[in-house]
Amino acid sequence: MSRRPTSSAGGSRPFTSSAFRPPTVAGAFDQDTRYGYDNTYLEEEEEEESDTDDLFAFVPPSTADQQRNSQRQHPQYFLHNAPAYDQVFSNAAAPEAPSVTYPSSTFDPYARFPAEVAGPSSLFTPPVSNIPVDSPPSTASHQATSDPYRMRRLSTARTATTDTRPSRTSAISSREIHVNLPSSPPEKTIEVDLPESSRRKRHPSSTIGGETATLDWTPSMLEQDSREGSIKMEFDFDAVNEEDSPFPEVRASVSNIDDPEMPVMTLRMWVIGLILCMVGGSMNVFFNFRQPAPSVSPLALLIISYPMGKFLAFVLPITTYRLPRFLGGMEFSLNPGPWNIKEHVLVYIMANVAIGPPYAINAIVVTQLNYNTNVDYWFSVLLVVATQLTGFGLAGLCRRFLVWPAGMVWPQNLVTCTLLNTLHAEDDEEPGGITRYKYFLLVMTGAFFFFFIPGYLFQALSVFSWICWIFPNNVPVNQLFGVSSGLGMSLLTFDWSQIAWIGSPLMYPWWAEAHIFFGFVLFFWIITPAMYYTNTWDLAYFPLNDDNPYDRLGQYYNVSRVLDSSNRFNLTAYNEYSPLYLPATYAMTYLLAFALSTCVLVHTALYHGRSLLNGMKKIRSEQDDIHAKLMRNYPEVPDWWYIVFFVGFFLMMVVVVEVRHTSVPVWALLLSVFLPTLYVLPSGFIYAMTGQGVSLNLLAQIIPGTLLAGNPVANMIFKAYSVQTLTEATSFVQDLKLGHYIKVPPRATFVVQAVGTLMASFVQLGVKQWMFDNVKDICSPDQASFLTCPHNQVYFTASAVWGLIGPTRQFGKGSLYQPELYAIIVGAFLPLPFWLWQRRYPNSWVKFVSTPVVLNGVSYIPPAGGINYSAWFATGFVFQYLVRKRNFAWWSKFNYVTSAALDSGTVLSAIVIFFTLEFPKGGIYVTWWGNEVFQNTADWTRVALKQIPPGGIS
User: Fold this and answer.
1) Cβ atoms of residues 939 and 476 within 8 Å
2) DSSP character for 144?
3) Which of 41, 150, 544, 853 is deepest in the core (most CB within 10 A)?
4) Strands 189-193 and 175-180, how do they pair?
5) What does residue 313 show for φ and ψ, rounded to 5 degrees?
6) What percent of the chain has pLDDT over 90?
7) pLDDT of residue 829 exceeding 90
8) pLDDT at 498
9) Which of 881, 875, 879, 882 is nearest to 895 (CA)?
10) How does pLDDT run across 590-604, given as a tens digit for each residue?
11) Distance set, CA 939 to CA 487, 538, 945 (Å)
12) b (16+ CB within 10 A) / e for 857-875
C-alpha cells in the first residue's frame, strides 16, 4: 500500500515500513476527546462513493450553512462518535487493551551528536520522552486499497524481519501481529515482533519491555480458522491512529507530523538562500531584457539548494559556540544537524518571493527610455521596495482566511511539498516497487534529455500543428487547428513547456480543470470563431489570436504617431492616424475581464460572506485540521507587524511620488491600494482552490486612464503599484501556506520573506542600472546581444493605449467596443442563479459550479494559444481523472512527484540549451525540415481571414 511520506520534518529520509510514526507534542491535540475508529463507516462509505465525489476533488468551499451540514458527512464526525479501534473485532472476548502512548519526536541539535563523533554524517539516536500523549484520530479513507486491515494466510509461521537500515527518526507506521494457533489450548498467544530500530520506542497502549511482547487475548473471530500455519494480520496504524487532512490531494503530498525542535534559522540556510536568491534574481532581470531568454524558476533553485545544503552539513564543524555574556551568552552551531526540510523550504520561500523581476521595473525603463525622463537608482529602489512590500503587509492580514483553513489547499504548494518530502523523507516501498526519490530522479533525467528533441532538434514536435502542415495555405484550417496563432483544436504537442505553460495539469484539481476547459471551449472555440467569421467589430481583418493592437491599415499600432513633443496625447494626430483595433481573442479577453471584475466580488459575498464575517469577528467557521493544530506549537506573527509593513510602505510610496513630482496625486495612490485590498480575498479564494489568480491589469489601467487622462507616467505608476501589490500579496500568502504545510515557525517565514524581498530589490535594481550604463544600444531592435526589451515594449504600448488614448475612446459611447461594458452587469448577476439553485437543492451538481473560475481560467489568452489549453486539459484528464479514479494508490504516491520531475527536468534542460547552444556567438542551430515545416504555414505567419480594403477600415 502506498502512503504519503511520514516526515515533513525529518532531516534525513526515514524508512517507515517498519517504524512507529511518532505523534506531535501533546498540546497539538484536544486531550479531552477520545478518538475512535469504526470500520462499519468505511464499508458504508465505499458503497455510497459516487463518481461525482471523485470527479470534483477538493471542491470549492460551500456556504457556511453547507459547511455545518457537511460536518455530519465528514469522517471526523464518525471518528468522534465511534467505538475505539481496540473493539473493532466485534466478536472478541478479549480484555480491553491498556492505553497506548508513545513519545513525541524531539530534536536536540547538540545532544544528538555523541561526544566521540568526529563528523556530521555519523548516526545518532535522538532522546526519547516518556510523557504519554493521546493518539490523534484517523481520517477514514475512501479507497478500498487504503483499508487499514489486511489479512493473508501464510504456509508456515514466521516472524517480522528486523529492519537493519539506519533511521534517524525511528518511527513505526505499521506493526505485524503473528497469531500462533496451537492445536488445543483455549488461549492464544499474540506475539508482537518489533524491528530492532524501533525497540527504544514504546507503543502507546502496551508495556513492551523487550523485543517481543506477549499479550493474552482471545479474539473469537480467529476460532473459525483452521489450525494450519498462522495468520499474519498487518495493522496499518497510520490509518487507525492518525488525524489527517480531509483532502486526498493534501494527504498524498503533505506530512501530518512535526518536529518542533528542528533547527530552522541556521546560518547555512541564510548563506544558501541569499546567494541563490541574489544570483537567480539577477539572472532573471538580465533575461527580462532579452529575447529569446529562459527564466530561472524557484523550482530549479529548490533542486540546486539540496546538494548545497547536504554539502555544508558534511563539511561544517559541529562545534557549539557560545557568545560572550555581555552579548547575551547565546549558544549556536554552524552545523546543528543534517540539512533538514525546514531549512530547505525557507530557501525556496526566499527565492519564490524575490527571484522574479519586479513588475515596477517595467515602468522605470519605459519612463526612462520612451518618455525621456531621468530615473536614478535610489528612486528606482524606493519605488520597487514600496510596490513589493505593501503586498507583504496585506498578505499577513489575510492568514485567517487564506492560510489557516483546511479548505484553502493552494495546489502549487502540493507539488513543492511532494518534491521536498521526496528529497527528505522516503515513503513506504512495497516489495518490487520503487521509492518516490528514485522515481523522481528517473523522470527528471528523462525529461531533461527528452526536451532536447522538441526544444532544439525537432521543434515541430513542440509546434505540432500537423493539420496545418497538410493545408499550409488554408486560413480557416490554420486558425482553428494552429498552434502559434490558432485555437489549438489539434490537441497534441510533445513539449512539456507547452503543456504546462499555464501551469502543470497534474497540479490543478480536476473540478477546476473541467471549469477552465469548459470556459475555454465556450468562449474561444464557440463564441470567438462565431464573432470572427461574422466579422463582428471588424475582427476578420486581423489575426484570430494575437496580443498586439492594430491600426486601420492592418499594421501594428504605432503609438509614437499619437504623441506630441511633451509625450502627451495629440488628438489631432490620433484623428488623422487611426483608432486602435483589437484582435478577436484580445477583444474576448477584455470582455471576460469586465465580467470577472464584478462576478468575483458577488461570488465571494454569496459563497464566503459568512466565513468572512466570522473571520473578522475571530470566530472560526471551519474546524482546524491536523496541520493547523501542529502550528499551534509556534508563536504566531502579531497582526500589528503586518499592519506596520502595509502602512509604512504605503507612506513610503507617498513620499516617492511626491518628492519626485510624478504627477500622481495622493488620492490616486489611495485608490490604487484600495483595488488590491478589495480583490485580495476573492483572488486568494480562487487561487487557493484552483491555482489561478485574478489579475487587476484591466482595472488598474482603465481607472487611471479615465481619472488621469492623457498622463501615461501616472497610469504606469498606478498600474505598477496596484497590480504588484495584489500579485505580491497572493505570492506571500501562497508561501505562508507552504510554511504552514511544512510546519515552519511563522515568524521564521516572516523574517525570510521580508529580508529576501528587500535584499533582492537592491541587487536587481543594481543589475538593471549596470546594464543601462554599460550595454550599448540596449532595448533597440538590432541590439547585438538580443537585449531588445520585449516586455518593456508591451508595457509601453499598454501605457500609451490606456494612458494616452484612454478607455473613453476605446470603450466609451459611440466607440467600436462599447458593447463590452455590458459584461460588467452580466458578471454581477452571473453567480446568482447557481447560488439560488444550490440553496434550493443542496445535493445537485450545481453546487460544484464556480463562475469566477470559468471566467478567470482563460485569462492567459493571449499570449497563450489554444494548444496551451487543449493539450493541458487532455493531460489533466489522464492524470487527474482516469489515473486518480482507477489507480488511486499510484496517483497518491507518484502524481505530484511526476509533475515536479517534469517541471524540473524541462527547466534545467531549457537553461542548458540556452547557455550552451543558443547564447554563445549568436547560437548554433540545426536547419532541417523538422525545424522549419511549421514556419511555412498561415498559422505561423498570422494571416487574417479578410484583406484590408484599399484606404483602410472606415
Assistant:
1) no
2) G
3) 544
4) antiparallel
5) -65, -25
6) 21
7) yes
8) 87
9) 879
10) 899 899 889 988 988
11) 10, 20, 11
12) bbbbbbebbbbbbbbbbeb
| Residue found by looking up cell 504519554 in the block | 132
Q: 858-868: per-residue pLDDT in tens?
A: 888 887 888 88
Q: How far apart are CA 284 and CA 294, in angstroms?
A: 8
CA angle 698, 796, 790 (to 5 degrees): 105
Euclidean distance between CA atoms 162 and 103, whole angstroms: 22
**Contact status, residue 440 vs residue 661, Cβ threshold 8 Å:** no
Average pLDDT over residues 228-245: 49
Q: Which residues make Cβ contacts (< 8 Å) with residue 75, sequence separation at least 6? A: 41, 45, 138, 139, 140, 246
pLDDT at 872: 92
| DSSP symbols for 195-262 | -GGGTTS--TT----SSEEEEE---GGGTTS-SSSEEEEEE-HHHHH----SSHHHHTTS-S---TTS
For residue 226, is pLDDT > 60?
no
Most confident of 201-215, 216-230, 675-689: 675-689
Name the average pLDDT for the chain.
74
Which value, in Å, is the radius of gyration of the alpha carbons in the chain? 30
3-state DSSP assignment of residue 181: coil
Task: Round to whole Å and give the CA distance between 711 and 802.
Answer: 9
Grid cell listed for 941: 505567419
Structure-block grid coordinates of residue 870: 487543449
Who has greater pLDDT, 146 or 637? Answer: 637
The CA dihedral of 906, 912, 914, 920, to the nearest 10 degrees, is -170
Percent of the chain at pLDDT > 70 equals 72
Can you give the three-state secondary structure of 49-81, one letter per residue?
A: CCHHHHHCCCCCCCCHHHHHHHHHHCHHHHHCC
pLDDT in tens, 385-435: 998 899 899 998 888 888 988 888 888 888 889 888 888 876 545 556 788
H or E stretch at 760: helix 746-774
Contact at 8 Å (CB) between 684 and 702? no
Q: In this structure, are residues 865 and 485 in contact, taking their beta carbons and an 8 Å threshold?
A: yes
Higher pLDDT, 25 or 925: 925
Cell of 540: 476578420
Q: How far apart are CA 855 and CA 861, in angstroms?
A: 12
Segment 721-742 shows an average pLDDT of 91
| HSE value, Cβ hemisphere, 13 Å, CA-based, for 622 | 29
Which residue, among 138, 16, 140, 141, has the nearest Cα to 430 in the 3D structure? 16
Would you say how long the chain is, in residues? 954
Q: In what order do the strands lie in the sheet with 149-154?
A: 149-154, 230-235, 175-180, 189-193, 212-216
Q: Is 635 exposed, middle or buried (0-12, 13-18, 19+ CB in 10 A)?
A: exposed
Question: Amino acid identity, residue 566?
Answer: S
Provide the whole-model pTM. 0.69
C-alpha–C-alpha distance, residues 798 and 281, integer Å: 25
Of the CA atoms within 13 Å of residue 620, those in its CB half-sphere come to 11
863: its cell numbers: 499570449
Q: Please provide the DSSP assignment of 236-255 as one string.
A: -HHHHH----SSHHHHTTS-
Q: Which cell goes with 679? A: 480583490
136 or 748: which leads in pLDDT: 748
**Mean pLDDT of all residues in 270-278:** 92
3-state DSSP call for residue 423? helix
If phi > 0 it is left, if psi is from -120 to 50 it is alpha, else beta; for residue 124 that is beta
CA distances for 793 relative to 374, 394, 874, angstroms: 18, 30, 34
Closest C-alpha to 146, from 177, 174, 176: 174
Give the whole-angstrom CA distance, residue 660 versus residue 380. 11
Helix 510-520 × helix 866-876 angle, to 10°: 150
Residue 527: pLDDT band by 50, 70, 90 thresholds? Answer: very high
